[in-house]
């Protein structure tokens, strides 16, 4: 039963990541935490997300905003060590409670048409938050998703820039996690077992992306954010 649940989680999350650019860690991490130790769940998420990003990046590279990407990477370099310190020393339950409340509040604001302007300083700050959340709870997506939704970024640019950013942040986060928290055979065997479903999800997700218009994409975004916020809130209480 655990193996079946694991396969379903990976398959659905792979489709979501491929079709939106941000869904894998948001959907997979909470459920992987039910099946694995925290460090193992985070590392499996990082490995599979990195594989998806690497498989897609060449095909969608023309849609990347390299200016924003550069600032996100610089910001994340500051946030990554902060996140691993949080993972090592601070109660993760309290962190998840705070993050869940922020996600829900900002999602409601977005649904009420609250918008912000994209600025270089904000790119850096969002990159820093994303980096900190990657090494602490394995979920870099919420800050990026909230920010890009608030600036009404087109779905092609959102997906490409996010996946390119993940290429950097997942690689560095995995190295930091392995050094600080160590790694296990379970992480690598589980990741290898999931690869066929990841590639099937890549195939189906690419086709789904072509038929999703901007409005449907936005609704997807809100649903994923609300799901993430509610799940993290329930889990932390």
TrEMBL record:
> Transmembrane ranges?
42-60, 72-90, 96-114, 163-181, 187-204, 216-234
Which keywords does the record carry? Cell membrane, Membrane, Transmembrane, Transmembrane helix, Transport
* Membrane topology classification: Multi-pass membrane protein
Matching entries from InterPro entries are given as: TM_pro_TauE-like, TSUP
Q: Where is it mostly found?
A: membrane
Localization annotation:
Cell membrane
UniProt family annotation: Belongs to the 4-toluene sulfonate uptake permease (TSUP) (TC 2.A.102) family.
Q: What is this protein called?
A: Probable membrane transporter protein
Species for this entry: Paenibacillus lactis
The top of its lineage is:
Bacteria, Bacillati, Bacillota, Bacilli, Bacillales
């Amino acid at each position: 039963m655990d193996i079946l649940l694991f396969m379903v989680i990976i398959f659905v999350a792979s489709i979501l990541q491929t079709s939106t650019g941000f869904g894998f860690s948001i959907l997979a991490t909470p459920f992987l935490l039910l099946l694995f130790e925290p460090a193992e769940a985070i590392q499996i998420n990082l490995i599979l997300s990195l594989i998806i990003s690497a498989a897609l990046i060449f095909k969608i590279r023309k849609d990347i905003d390299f200016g924003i990407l550069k600032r996100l990477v610089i910001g994340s370099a500051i946030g990554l060590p902060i996140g691993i310190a949080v993972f090592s020393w601070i109660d993760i339950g309290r962190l998840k409670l705070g993050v869940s409340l922020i996600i829900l509040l900002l999602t409601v604001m977005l649904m009420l048409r609250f918008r912000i302007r994209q600025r270089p300083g904000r790119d850096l700050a969002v990159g820093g938050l994303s980096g900190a959340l990657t090494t602490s709870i394995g979920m870099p997506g919420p800050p990026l998703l909230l920010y890009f939704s608030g600036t009404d970024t087109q779905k092609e640019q959102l997906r490409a820039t996010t996946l390119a950013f993940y290429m950097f942040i997942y690689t560095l986060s995995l190295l930091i996690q392995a050094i600080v928290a160590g790694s296990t055979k379970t992480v690598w065997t589980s990741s290898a077992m999931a690869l066929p479903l990841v590639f099937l999800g890549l195939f189906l997700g690419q086709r789904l992306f072509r038929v999703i218009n901007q409005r449907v994409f936005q609704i997807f975004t809100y649903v994923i954010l609300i799901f993430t916020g509610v799940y993290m809130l329930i889990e932390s209480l």
